[in-house]
Design goal:
homodimer; about 650 residues; alpha/beta; TIM Barrel; MTHF_reductase_bac (chains A, B); methylenetetrahydrofolate reductase (NADH) activity (chains A, B); amino-acid biosynthesis (chains A, B); oxidoreductase (chains A, B)
Chain lengths: ~650, ~650
């Protein structure tokens, strides 16, 4: 959405809004950390974020990537900065094209600073000298697609201190097609408000967004103020000077000062605040909380139009349906479906088209280096040690599992005991949701969609089941008329009690004066695409460990043997019923330790370890119901098994 | 659906099914009566019905019309008879084309009887001599589109008594492409079963449907048995002879005999019974009830896939959504949307295409002659007398109103008192439904859709509101955040508190392993189309009475003055809340009698009567919120009003 439209809406509802500015970090780890921070800062409810353009365009590729990630994966309305300095026209064209493809609709057009090694700079081949030229060019090339912001300098800029002349320049940028103004940082509200008045008098009628620099440390405060030559009111010095060596005290005092400044701005009727976060969350969050304008402090819940985070990628804004399977793998889902023409579409069920992108084409396997993952998950040598990871994850003591890119959601609270019990008995739970029989759409945990509605869910459970128990599980599933299920192993042998391939809506909402919204579904084709990914993630995990090692063999065996089973309880009044299927069942040999080749020559046969873990071989009846189950009909060898007592 | 497929499904579930045969009546009134009967007999749950072909093709147009009505309006799977006798090829082509267009997929191909005035008959230009030729032709022209039935003669036919030779003919018809057999009537089950065995031995393996003639009167029983030369078992004569002069006793005894015969057939594993109803319901229903195979006697509810009766018209079988407005005007809705390409479609909201057929193009105004309608509704002279018609309708004492083509549904029971109270206070209720917060899909009154599901409804109310009360009503509606409404008068002045034109789902169902189904909606464009029809029906009603008469003026005034208001309570947990909007409100001058020109020269001014009925003129605030409301700003004249006491 255009920023100017967002501002108009906020103005209409008389509700303060704010935005965050980030810049491309220097390292890959820094980028990942910033993504995680952006993801968390989403919950503060920014109206939009900015990604700055690397000075001289050096980080331009990264800026484009970050704009795409912010839009598509984190669902953050993003404004991409773009500068004239050191940019050829083809580079500008490329950046605009990439922004367009990312679904980005907002550009902040800047002249930019000259490269660090030059005091003056020359216009590049076909490039632009002034921001107004860039504004004109974007308008010419893209019409009204982009909302175009420009910079305002209440206290002059680097090479021009004549404020009135700069207002003339600003007027030219507006006349060239700019639709909003973001100011340079300032600390003196009177200067800012005076400058706004001058702008208005000069006929600049587009929204003006004040740029706010929260105070992180005393040194940075002085350095930035000095660099931008902005006036620091006398009382700010007085307040900060006494505590300047105590960072915490500086942040606390700084927060008070900045919040007070923001209040003055809001009182003057300017309802949007733009924060220069410097890629840090704390100082900005403190100011917002002091102002009571975050969801947790304002009493106004974060707008959550759907149960999953909306992507703002190109053509994705109207996306309304997703399979439940990628619930904990949002990035993967966005990536695998990036080439779709429409969302939702009929391609899940259309075998003629490659519905979900190939796993390898997108590099969407397990996140993190082997070392980091081993550090995170240790070196499990028994099923018990694997299940304990799942238990820790459910208890909130582990931030991610191979199948879940983020921490456990609060939604699982009501079924946590059931899930813990399952995992402790050797059923590894991959995904789940409790049943919801009409919660308010504003419910703090389960709510989504417009106010005044009711949301519903069918209980869902997805887990890994060992063959020794599989037959009993299927029998119990078949005996319960409320349950529908799909079970599939790594080889793709599928078992289901559903009769057709159409979607099963497992989350839906009823809203005033609307059609029913049904944003989460279970269905066959997408489950089979997910199955490949789910087993692949396990394989990736096993490959974190050296070939022949206990952990690799253990995890390989789990992935090679288990069925991935998903179950829906179609009676959405029942939350715990789905767990009764597993009552009294437990995986065998939970504590049997797998021994790697380093320690024993005997443990190198897959069959050996497999037999140990499974206990009984799967029975013939189950085998028959699965296509191409021939391998299993070979009795497992009973020799060659190496165990530690 | 093909009859042979229906039979296969019924066979698989081992559940007896049955069908009814009707013939085209001689008079228009007879056709209307038969339609009403077919509509009622739908509730007995026939698998399909047959419409016979007028002998010699004389009633052929009517047969085609009836096939279309049965398929489209009454949702009855229909088999059209088609004969060779007296039919040119172009007539056959025309009949098949019309059957196709009606969505009919079943044809019974017959040779037919010669015209009454000829003992032998000649093949017409390009026509067909034998049924097998007709079967072949249909297969050639339409491939597998039509399921094709042929006649079987267990005791010979008119001009051939050699049963074995007739079985040879039957085999030829089967070889030509027939897919099921319907037999001539018979009363001797042994003869029939013996004949079936012969057919099977002869290699005729398609389903054979026995034709059953229930006994209406003794004379008809003998005449038909004699005409078809079928054998009547001795005990049948013995049982019927003693009671032959008592029609009721004949039917009772005949019912026992025919039911016993049906039981023998069912016991022999032939699970479908075809009844020659002779366009009468009673004798057939008695047999079915004796066999306990109707929905009310079998304990198996009538399948009701959606809350409204599905149309089987061409392309309509997958129709899943309808506006609620035509709930009591099914025929009109089917007719007005007959030219749509798909169901549902986006045309409700597409202003470029004529979404709903023009009123006049389809002749879908008020049903019945003026005389019949006056007989039904009397000559109301005051609002009280009009409301008393609505009260009688709600109490089940009146079969139809101008806005409801059939009797009040049992669904209204839970809000009957609310509706009665409204009407007694002068609000004429046009349409309504109670809120349902998750009833079982097999609920006898509210249930629909597959078993194991839950159905929901938002409370809905549509009624006529006089301007004197309108402002208060709108104020109360605006004050209740759960209610959305549309109000429109005859001139098309629309008032609504809805913000977009998208549909509001007011009926929906949640089913195992399915998407949410939302078959009934409220939305703007269709409401405006319905508004024209609703006001037109009132006008049509007024025109049943002579110009200048009290009744015409009264009804014209009501239609000219009232707003048609629809209200949805988006909180589907609340049934009675919607009626609180009208608490303490009453139309003025309920008992004021309108006087016609015959009785008084004074009562000829529209303003006069309008003023009387409305009491206060509408206030300015309301006026402002309605576009083009200028006329109303002129104060009503206070003179020229003619009243009785």
């Amino acid at each position: 959405m255009h920023i100017s439209k967002k501002l108009a809406q906020a103005h209409q509802s008389n509700k303060p809004t704010f935005s965050f500015e980030f810049f491309p970090p220097k390292t890959a780890q820094g980028v990942q950390n910033l993504y995680d921070r952006m993801d968390r800062m989403h919950d503060l409810g920014p109206a939009f974020i900015d990604i700055t353009w690397g000075a001289g365009g050096r980080h331009s590729q990264l800026t484009c990537e970050m704009v795409n990630a912010a839009q598509s994966h984190y669902g953050l309305e993003t404004c991409m900065h773009l500068t004239c300095t050191d940019m050829e026209r083809t580079q500008v064209d490329d950046a605009l094209r990439r922004a367009y493809k990312a679904g980005c609709t907002n550009i902040l057009a800047l002249r930019g600073d000259p490269p660090r090694d030059q005091e003056k700079w020359e216009v590049k081949e076909g490039g632009f000298r002034y921001a107004r030229d860039l504004v004109k060019y974007i308008r010419t090339e893209y019409g009204d697609h982009f909302d175009i912001g420009v910079a305002g300098y209440p206290e002059g800029c680097d090479d021009h201190r004549d404020v009135d002349m700069l207002i003339d320049h600003l007027k030219e940028k507006v006349d060239a097609g700019a639709t909003f103004v973001v100011t340079q940082m300032f600390y003196d509200v009177d200067i800012f408000l005076d400058w706004v008045k001058k702008c208005r008098d000069r006929g600049i009628n587009i929204p003006i967004i004040p740029g706010i620099m929260p105070i992180h440390t005393h040194a940075a405060f002085l350095r930035r103020a000095n660099w931008t030559k902005c006036h620091i009111p006398e009382d700010w010095y007085k307040a900060l000077e006494p505590v300047k060596n105590d960072d915490a005290a500086v942040r606390a005092v700084g927060k008070e000062l900045v919040a007070e400044m923001c209040r003055k701005i809001l009182d003057a009727g300017i309802l949007h605040l733009h924060f220069y976060t410097m890629n840090l969350a704390q100082a900005t969050r403190m100011v917002l909380e002091d102002l009571s304008i975050t969801p947790s402090t304002s009493g106004l819940a974060l707008e959550k139009p759907l149960p999953w985070r909306k992507s703002l990628g190109l053509n994705r804004r109207d996306e309304t349906v997703r399979p439940i399977f990628w619930r904990n793998r949002n990035t993967s889902y966005i990536t695998r479906t990036a080439d779709w023409d429409e969302f939702p579409n009929g391609r899940w069920g259309d075998s003629r088209s490659p519905a979900f992108g190939e796993l390898d084409a997108y590099g969407i396997g397990l996140k993190g280096t082997n070392e980091a993952n081993i550090k995170l998950w240790g070196k499990p040598k028994s099923l018990r040690e694997v299940t304990s990871l799942f238990v820790r994850y459910l208890q909130g003591d582990l931030d991610r599992l191979p199948w879940s890119e983020g921490a456990i959601s609060t939604e699982a609270e009501s079924i946590k005991d059931d899930l813990l019990s399952l995992n402790k008995r050797g059923f590894l739970t991959i995904n789940s949701q409790p049943a919801i029989d009409g919660a308010s759409s504003t419910h703090p945990v389960h709510g989504w969609g417009p106010v005044g509605g009711w949301v519903y869910q069918k209980a869902y459970l997805e887990l890994l089941v060992f063959p020794s128990i599989f037959k009993t599980v299927i029998e119990r599933l078949d005996a319960n008329k409320n349950l529908t299920y799909y079970a599939v192993n790594q080889k793709g042998e599928l078992l289901t009690n559903t009769k057709d391939e159409g979607p099963n809506a497992v989350t839906w909402g009823i809203f005033p004066n609307r059609e029913i919204v049904q944003p989460t579904i279970v269905e066959t084709v997408s489950f089979l695409a997910w199955k490949d990914e789910a087993f692949r993630l396990g394989q990736d995990w096993s490959k974190c460990y050296p070939a022949g090692s206990s952990s690799r063999k253990l995890i390989e065996t789990i992935m090679g043997e288990c069925y991935l089973v998903n179950i829906v309880n179609n009676d959405f009044h029942q939350t715990h019923e789905i767990f009764k299927v597993f009552e009294g069942l437990e995986a065998r040999d939970l504590d049997l330790v797998f021994e790697g080749t380093e320690a024993s020559d005997h443990a190198n046969g897959t069959y050996g370890t497999r037999e140990v873990l499974n206990g009984d071989a799967p029975v013939a009846e189950v085998e028959k119901s699965i296509a191409n189950g021939e391998e299993r009909k070979v009795p497992f060898p009973t020799n060659g098994v190496a165990l530690k007592s």
